[in-house]
Amino acid sequence: MTNEINISIIGNVDHGKSSLLAALSNSFSKIGLAPFVPYEQIDLATFNGEGGVKLNRAEVKIAGKENVYALSDYPSHQDFIKNLVYGEKVDGVLLVISAADGPMPQTREHLRLAKKVGVKKVLIVLNKVDMVSESLQEMVIKEVRQLLYEEGFECSECQTIKGSALLARKCGCGKKECEKCGFLFNIYEEMERCFSLSENRDEKALFVASNSSDTPFGIPVVKGELISGKLKKDSTLSALIGNEIKSLVIKGLEVEGISVDEVMAKSAVSLYVSGVKSDDISKGDLFFDENGVKLENSFESLIYLFRKEEGGKQNPIKIADEIEVSLFGKKFKSLLIHSSEKEQVFPGDNATVSFKLEKDYVLKNNFSFSIMEGEKIVGVGKIVKIGE
Ligand SMILES: Nc1nc2c(ncn2[C@@H]2O[C@H](COP(=O)(O)OP(=O)(O)OP(=O)(O)O)[C@@H](O)[C@H]2O)c(=O)[nH]1
Ligand SMILES: [Mg+2]
Ligand SMILES: [Zn+2]
To answer: What is the pTM of this model?
Structure first.
């Protein structure tokens, strides 16, 4: 089984992120490890994503020996943040730094946000080396290392790679010996070495119910999505049903109408279960493969409020505001109880804030949620810590 490892390409505007992804795609397509995606398509990336939230990103998958590296580039800073808090978990980042400019404010902000959502590995790519002398390049690398240290990435043991994305993209020969394209292979090897373990991915099963009904024989069948881990026939799960945790047994599993003994994450599944009634199950109920799941009602999160152009709110939010959040499609009234950096969070801003839900739910790090205003999604968030 190949693991898919999610890598975000980050860095200041214009430092060469899209050029790098285009160069990687071009070269690795020549040796059959990636599809060819032209620069223009990467640069303008549009992608309609999860749960009604529009996520723009360009993705190129490069096959490694055992893993597939899904590399994502974002057309704007806002898209990067939205993806970080609402997209799939980021396992590592390629930090693109222009040797001609050095680290910039957005470089720091990207790192700070990545750190907040649990990213541990950073691979530095010093780009645009065609523009400056070697001694200047070394100075910039020192500055970047200092920045990583300041932002708490001192344990990221990835090596720094230098090159010119523009020259490599234009050559695109796909040869390791090439003076221009060779560094892309160094990046590839470093990804294999540095990103091969997606250590902090939760492999426990988590299933989210979307609806349920009864079979003619009276057995409840629950449709939903397996978000992580795997499910097996005849296994027991803990389920949050209404306000209680119950135990249920999987009597049967179906994927696309076909009965199976086991399913892996990311599948739409129908579960035949015993131990609950179909009437008790509603959208957003969670099933887990672990014992001792605790119910909680408060968490700290990284949030991003949409700008007006993205369909956001008019006003900022602040402590003591009553805010509706939606977790897996289940809506909760909640209170904003703490904000660590800002008193008010304006549309277009990101912030670390804590919420207290009106009732308990199963809460875990990395759960994404949306911030609602009536039926409209006006922001997104990701849980980074449980409790107040
Ligand atoms: N000289 C030189 N120019 C480069 C290099 N890499 C990228 N560029 C140029 O820098 C500019 C920005 O490159 P992009 O790849 O679009 O940068 P980006 O980081 O994706 O920019 P945004 O998406 O706007 O944040 C373009 O004009 C590129 O041609 C390089 O290695 N050397
Ligand atoms: Mg770009
Ligand atoms: Zn080449």
So the answer is: 0.88
